[in-house]
Amino acid sequence: MFQASRGRRWAVVLLVPFLLGALLWASSWSAPADPPAPRHARAPRAPRPAASPEKSLRLAQASAPAQAAPAPSAPAPAVSRALPPPSPRALKLYQLGKKLGVHEPHLEDPCVAPAGTTCARTALSPFFESLDALSSRAASSPTVISAFGNSLIAGDRIVDVIREELGATFGDGGRGVLAVDRLAAYGPRVRAGFARGGWEPRTLGELKLAELPFGITGIYHRSTTTKASSRFALDREPRGTLWWLDVPRAGRLSVHADGQELARAEPQGSGQAQALSFDIPEGARHLEVVAEGRGATVLGVVLQHQRPGIVLDTLGVPSADANLFLRAREDIFRAQLAERSPRLLLFILGGNEAKRLEWGRSKLTEVEEGLRTFVRRSRAAAPGSACLVVGPIDAVRGGNGPSKLVQRPYLDEVISIERQIALSEGCAFFDIFSAMGGSGSLARFVQAGLVHEDLVHPRGHGLDILGQLITDALLRSWVDAADPRRQAALAPPLQASEEAR
């Protein structure tokens, strides 16, 4: 009797911290006391496009493209899904978010395979099943996330939060796709090597189209001097891959680990993209890519563990939008994305689309066609992947203080288009604009010193909050999707839902 009573007391003591953590998480993104300011009207312009009545779309009717739909798999062992306790960083961000009017994040994860009154599969099921395998220790390989975006993620801080928070819960699978060097003289080198000598970077976001093709990274580095090199610190990765272009009259490329040559790329002038894989000696500390002559062109370097865990490839390009990502040569794009075999395609786009609409450099039909084509191309290259589209953040214009800042035009239109495309293509959608507080939220970020002087790019904890919102939205949906009844209810038609904004 005494032993049983003491066991019950210890069970209570151990359970209390877990319950407190769960309560903190559940209340972390609680809505502010005051409702968010409504989006201001823009009567002089045409109203944002909405789905016509005959094309109204319900979430449970959204389906993936035929070529992207994964084959039904055998039922996986039951896995208990529960929100992990928030990290110390997350708790600090929750407190800051409350002051800024941040809302509890929820994404739309449509049912793509109804099963009577329940749902057999949602848009994010392939990714969630991978998380289940990681959580139950049944996985034998990493779960890769391919994150495409603009300058909002090119600096890597937003996706670093996603990577680190998911990695802390499901394991760290390593770095993934890396660049020869940073695109600017500032910012972290976590996703890039340390370049020496002459390297010319080109990106698909530039106004003038580059002469050589791009792959999934959207960038390439071309040597302008002999013996140009890039050095990467190793973290016990067993293998690596060099993505390079076989450019006519280009110099050779070689790969070394602590001075030992591992592999050599001999250009034949075919103009094709190549993948050079190599084993890395155990205990090696540094990897070096060396251009033996001018014109050697590197599309990227892949360094990854084979252990289970999260790998997030940052594929962010400054000034990019969906149409500019279509500049990547399709055969290279498909081959490289298929090689990465992601379980989640993450699209964080929309800001540049809204700006180009405002400047008269694009049309709504071009925005819609570009994103739809890019999503379909990506899903065709990775048919077993889940898909999540994240809308643009709040955008403002004006000057001389946050009180004079007003929302930029066309933001509502881009959000509406991205949501319609996501749900109709069998992808999930996250309205980060609403989650960060809606219209006026960026002005509050400006007031708190969390936006650069250009009034476009958040900085510091402003970026961290955005990354935490995306992370929490994914984790909450992962837990909610454990109950198929929650995914089976039909949502309001797309048109009515958009008009309710």
List the helices and strands and how they pair.
Blueprint: H1 2-28, H2 88-100, E1 111-115, E2 118-122, H3 125-135, E3 142-149, H4 151-154, H5 157-170, E4 176-178, E5 194-196, E6 199-203, E7 219-223, E8 228-233, E9 239-245, E10 253-257, E11 260-265, E12 273-279, E13 286-291, E14 297-304, E15 309-316, H6 322-325, H7 330-340, E16 344-348, H8 351-358, H9 364-381, E17 386-390, E18 396-397, E19 406-407, H10 411-424, E20 428-430, H11 432-435, H12 441-447, H13 461-480, H14 484-488, H15 494-499
Parallel strand pairs: 3-15, 3-16, 16-17, 17-20
Antiparallel strand pairs: 1-2, 4-14, 5-8, 6-7, 7-14, 8-13, 9-12, 9-14, 10-11, 10-13, 18-19
Helix pairs in contact: 2-13, 5-13, 7-9, 9-10
Sum this structure up briefly:
The chain has 15 helices and 20 strands. By secondary structure, it is of the alpha+beta class.
Low-confidence stretches: 1-24, 31-77, 488-501
What's the total count of β strands? Answer: 20
Strand content: 15-25%
Supply the number of helical segments.
Answer: 15
Biggest sheet record: 6 strands, antiparallel
Shape: globular
Average pLDDT, to the nearest integer? 84
Q: In angstroms, what separates the terminal alpha carbons?
A: 60 Å
Radius of gyration: 24 Å
Structural class of the helix and strand makeup?
Answer: alpha+beta
Helix content: 25-40%
